[in-house]
Design goal:
Length: 51
């Protein structure tokens, strides 16, 4: 089963570029996925979970 890049999907559906979004993410793997979708690392904010 092929996993879809959720960031690429949303950028495509909304017809916007990765440089025009801000991502809030807590998972390192999802941060890497966002970067691979063309979202600049400066637009990705790492969120720390309080447990």
């Amino acid at each position: 089963m092929t996993r879809t890049n959720k960031f690429k999907h949303v950028l495509s559906v909304l017809h916007i570029s990765g440089s025009s979004v801000v991502v809030f993410e807590d998972s390192e793997s999802e941060i890497k996925t966002a970067i691979s979708a063309g979202i600049p690392s400066k637009n990705i904010l790492r969120v720390v979970k309080n447990v």
